[in-house]
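quick one
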Amino acid sequence: MTTFKFGPHLIHESQIFFKSKLTVGIVNLKPIAAGHVLVVPKRNTPRLGDLSTEETVDLMLSARKIGNVVENHYNCTSLTMTIQDGPQAGQTVPHVHMHIIPRKKGDWENNDDIYQELEDSKKSKGVDNEEREPRSLEEMSQEAKELRAYFQYE
Ligand code: AMW
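structure w/ adenosine monotungstate:
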């Protein structure tokens, strides 16, 4: 796999840090916190309900492993793990994905503000009307390299 199709987006191999039989872990173009990554089934399908049982189990087991790693790597103590399953739930990329966001005490003043921030991060302009800059491939590749070291990766 040299590139991976995430909905309409072409993901560079260097953005991928985890691969199982049916799932990949990729670093995020516009993370809302350090270690905000995405867990994505290899097969491109929009809704969780489209996945086979095997794909669903593989996704969840992968999310558990990845969550463990990012929580430790970023010295956090909890995880927000969320799937926006369909456009009315806020899904913008029509390819199933779970957000994993490492959390620690005091990171957001009100715990659930994280969901608003997640929404804002996906708009082309943020709440302050500032354009949210996507990260460079170099920056994303560096993070993926660090995370890849925790997994048996081929
Ligand atoms: W969804 O609105 O569909 O729940 O979330 C889409 C996520 O995908 C966002 O976190 C966004 O930053 C991320 N994203 C969009 N395009 C890319 C890309 N090319 N590489 C990595 N992440 C991406």
